[in-house]
Amino acid sequence: MDTGPIARRYALALLKYVTETGHGEEVYAQVKALLADPDAAPQPLCEDLQHFSALLIKNGRMPEVKRIFHSFIRLYEERHDIHLVRLKTAVDSPALQAKIEAFVRDKVGGQVEFLTEVDPALIGGFVLEVDDRRLDASVSRQLEDIRRQLIEKNKRIV
């Protein structure tokens, strides 16, 4: 997600600041919590985040706070070699999840944040997202591909 130069500049400043103060993990966790559910904000916010918020208010940058936080999360994860992995399956399958998790951890190295979700609309198979890459091995995707092929063939005949 391109967050823009202003958001990136403020995110870099926040990253540098929390690196100097040594509160990076705490700020990272609170920013992720704020982005996940702004109404359930961690109380109280850590001191570094309070100072940063005051700076944003002073400079009139509160409308960009969401983009700034998204940019901060991306920068923090890059710097600390954290990979976000999402696995979506049609049914709950702990064995499949364990195999895929072990495979991904072996391939990407670094820290892996593994999120799983069950989506019956997939019919079967799975969708795996690692950082910005996606592997869609679901039955619903395969059926969609077949449907598109049939439509293309019928257009040529008519």
Structure notes:
- The protein is of the alpha+beta class and 158 residues long.
- It has two domains: 5-79; 82-157, Dihydrodipicolinate Reductase, domain 2, CATH 3.30.360.
- The protein contains six helices and four strands, in the order H-H-H-H-E-H-E-E-E-H.
- Helix 1 crosses helix 4 and helix 2 (24-36) crosses helix 4.
Annotate the secondary structure layout.
Blueprint: H1 5-21, H2 24-36, H3 47-58, H4 65-79, E1 82-89, H5 94-108, E2 111-118, E3 125-130, E4 133-138, H6 139-157
Key structural traits:
four-stranded mixed beta sheet, alpha+beta, 158 residues
Task: Tell me briefly what this model is.
The protein is α+β, with helices and mostly antiparallel strands and 158 residues long. It has helices at residues 5-21, 24-36, 47-58, 65-79, 94-108, 139-157; strands spanning 82-89, 111-118, 125-130, 133-138.
Average predicted local confidence, pLDDT: 91
Q: Looking across the biggest beta sheet, what order are the strands in?
A: 2-1-3-4
Low-confidence stretches: none
Instruction: Tell me the structural class.
Output: alpha+beta
Name of the top-level CATH class of the largest domain: Alpha Beta
Instruction: Label the overall shape.
Output: elongated
Number of domains: 2
Count of individual beta strands? 4
CATH architecture of the largest domain: 2-Layer Sandwich
Count of helical stretches: 6
Task: Write the element-wise H/E pattern from the N-terminal end onward.
Answer: HHHHEHEEEH
Sheet with most strands: 4 strands, mixed
| Helical content (DSSP H or I, runs of 4+) | 55-70%
